[in-house]
Amino acid sequence: MTTTSAGPLPQAEGRRGAGAATLRDVARLAGVSIKTVSNVVNDYPHVRPTTRQRVEEAIRTLDYQPNLTARTLRSGRTGALALAVPELRLPYFAELADEVIRAAERRGMVVLIEQTNRDRQREVDLLASARLRMVDGLLFSPLVLGIEDAALIEIDTPLVLLGERMFHPSVDHVTMRNVEAARAATEYLLHRGRRRIAVVGVHPGEVIGTAGLRLRGYREALEHAGIEVDERLFGVADLWHLREGDEATRTLIDSGVDFDAVFAFNDTLALGAIHALRSAGREVPDDVAVMGFDNSDEGMYSIPGLTTIDPGRRRIAESAVDVLLNRIENRGSAARHVEVGFSVVVRESA
Amino acid sequence: MTTTSAGPLPQAEGRRGAGAATLRDVARLAGVSIKTVSNVVNDYPHVRPTTRQRVEEAIRTLDYQPNLTARTLRSGRTGALALAVPELRLPYFAELADEVIRAAERRGMVVLIEQTNRDRQREVDLLASARLRMVDGLLFSPLVLGIEDAALIEIDTPLVLLGERMFHPSVDHVTMRNVEAARAATEYLLHRGRRRIAVVGVHPGEVIGTAGLRLRGYREALEHAGIEVDERLFGVADLWHLREGDEATRTLIDSGVDFDAVFAFNDTLALGAIHALRSAGREVPDDVAVMGFDNSDEGMYSIPGLTTIDPGRRRIAESAVDVLLNRIENRGSAARHVEVGFSVVVRESA
DNA sequence: TAAGCTCTCTACAACGTTGCACACGGCGGT
DNA sequence: ACCGCCGTGTGCAACGTTGTAGAGAGCTTA
């Protein structure tokens, strides 16, 4: 039961060999206690200037750098946050990640990225993952989780949801105004005289996801204008990649239904739609106007330049990091719901 | 806003209140020692089945999950690696990051992303950063550091350089075959009968960076074909964004120099070039053929589809992670230099 | 002169985990 | 009977850091 601690002392190591310098090494060199070195490192004020100098010199000599892991263990704070997105290669998320990393950096944080690959199981696993222990909080942009999964997001790790407000009001959300923006996009097309507006990117039956909300905005605009919604104009596209935009648009064309505009639910789909239209000999915007959504870089120099919605990605990133840090600082506080503004970016395609 | 927490002692919490369960809690509940729980968690074989069951039940009851930070402190391994890229919004790097994250995940690792924003100081700082302590190794894609900075990359953290082999042979590199691929791209254009081939993306004076190497491949192809290199066909573009591709190409057009092909040093530049050419009334590929480099998603559905070089991004990501893990396992081993293969992807633009 | 204060510095204990050494009981072989 | 071994389980120490409590020196104040 008890161990006699006879045997060799642990001092065998000839001091500094491998590994980085620690507080202990600095303390030994400077002839002070470990804690004093720690105090110097952390700018504790009550250290005699001469002592401070000696310590600082030792720090330089040994090129000491604090071990963040040990600090984390002690303090409970890692200085890192996780960003979970469906797929980084989608321009919207790449640009979002870019902005989040910048925003986090300004606040001294670093970002770990997880991809959920539009796989439900991965979204579920992520929330339960021990990985979250490596991180102070999570920014999560769910793609397939829905309200029926509300229980899953009740986790201990501070969490901010991005995208749309679909869960408990008790969870922080930072969202774009999907319905209003989609409505504005549709109204812009109507205002330009288009009356047969197809949509590309529909998820049949979805109500509360991105596709559902944007479709709702579209419906609202039409209804408000007294135009009947024609479901034959719905282009279904599960994924929002170029290929799907192209295929959904071809399907619409082949179906023979008449339309003079396409409202694509993101820019990538819109570019795919343009491709399909031009391949079929229809001019954009003369024959068919095309409207995107996202204002990603790829639409800026396309031909024709893509008219689209700027959903305020940068402010989303900023707010998301702020809200998350706030939540980390103050776990008990009331949930915040931030909705950032949007704008219609007019270029040539519509 | 703040509450004075006078009064109650911190022990008021009736055990499990805040914080997650630890080995200690599980041990207490299962009536065994901490170490035994640890043994169960780590699949140590010599645990009696009945004991194991009891412990596992306690683990489930308390929803115990190991604290990765503590593990890290103990073991020295974090299970994370850093990927440093110039800018995540550039499609090449977004897709690279995507692939790196996938490759890392297959090996049980998670990825932290740093952006250097093509800022020299940030590249320098990154290498010296304490942040690296949070990570087992670094995949670094330098943009502006050059051979003159060789001293800077002598760091303790395991490091693999991506892009081109420009540093000490004593450092691991995973690179694409820039010279050979650019030569193949140029030869393809020559083979198609083009003789006045402009290049877009030149960095004047650069020898050993991406731009320099691709320009070398271009030169080699021309020289081998007995065609003189005409510097008036060099389109300078510092950044490789759509805008710069467009502007550089406009400059070429405005200069009045004659050309029947453009070899852009990446796909984004190529798309910018196509935009400029079409705006100027030149047909692609009839008047001017356009060749890109990267085979990023954006070129797949552009109009016309972009002919380009596939540099083997996926294999780069795979190899990079493998080489890095290898380096982490075995610090003393000889440096490895992996060059992955490439291919010419023919679509419509050339 | 004693009490009290400030300044400077220190020892100790924890954060949660795992490697190490060992204790204990039973078993098989000599 | 003895030895050694195997299977099972334990306690201790350590990873590098920081919060807390307090020690000792020098100063002021009554």
UniProtKB/TrEMBL annotation, chains A, B:
Gene3D superfamilies with a match to the protein in the record: 3.40.50.2300, lambda repressor-like DNA-binding domains
UniProt KW Ribonucleoprotein keyword: no
Protein name: DNA-binding LacI/PurR family transcriptional regulator
GO MF annotation, one: transcription cis-regulatory region binding
Provenance organism: Kineococcus xinjiangensis
Keywords: DNA-binding, Transcription, Transcription regulation
InterPro entries noted in UniProt: HTH_LacI (IPR000843), LacI/GalR-like_sensor (IPR046335), Lambda_DNA-bd_dom_sf (IPR010982), Peripla_BP_I (IPR028082)
Domain spans labelled HTH lacI-type: 21-75
The keyword Transport belongs to this UniProt entry's keyword annotation: no
